[in-house]
Amino acid sequence: MVTETDLELGDGRTLRAYDTCAGGADDRLAVLWHHGSLIVGAPPEPLFPAAEELGIRWVSYERPGYGGSTPRPDRGMASAAGYASAVADALGIDRFAVVGYSHGGSHAVVCAALLPERVLGAVIVREERVPEPEPEKVGA
Fold first, then answer.
1. Phi-psi sector, 109: left (phi>0), alpha (psi -120 to 50), beta
2. DSSP 3-state assignment of 3?
3. In this structure, which topology does domain 3-137 adopt according to CATH?
4. What's the CA gap between 65 and 51, in Å, rounded?
5. Comparing C-alpha atoms, which of 137, 81, 86, 136 is closest to residue 109?
6. What pLDDT is recorded for position 134?
7. Which residues contact 8 (CB under 8 A, 6 or more apart)?
């Protein structure tokens, strides 16, 4: 089961988040899914049965302008670290792994690079390029 939550950001925008942990924080390994460019942010449902067996909690969010998240046309790639932190904080998650699919791979790399105290590891699936982080736009 996936719970959808609309997080209110400090600037009044909304970020839609998803969580496979119905009761809030728990001891499972949290894995934050970064979706590709042509899909919305729900975690990959075909992987849920294996995740349940392995004790994995899938968490994700829709990037600004996707699905239920408010657009932010001027956002930089590094803003992914700020959004990932906002989602993790709201869901009571201290440390997490990241997985990025397609264009989401760039976002996962940015999170791993800019949040080393929080990101346990990163997996990139089908990424075509890896961007240089833009530290000045973290949390933008």
1. alpha
2. strand
3. Rossmann fold (3.40.50)
4. 28
5. 81
6. 60
7. 14
- Name the band, by pLDDT with cuts 50, 70 and 90, for residue 132: low
Give the CA-trace dihedral at 132, 127, 39, 56, to 10 degrees: -100
Residue 34's DSSP bridge partners are: 100
Place of tokens 């949040």: 115
State the DSSP H helix or E strand holding residue 108, giving kind and residue range, or none if neither. helix 104-114
Question: Which uninterrupted H or E stretch holds 48?
Answer: helix 48-54
Which carries the bigger pLDDT value, residue 71 or residue 116?
116
Amino acid code (one letter) for 38? L
The string of pLDDT tens digits covering residues 15-71 is: 999 999 866 557 899 999 998 887 778 888 898 999 999 999 999 999 888 788 888
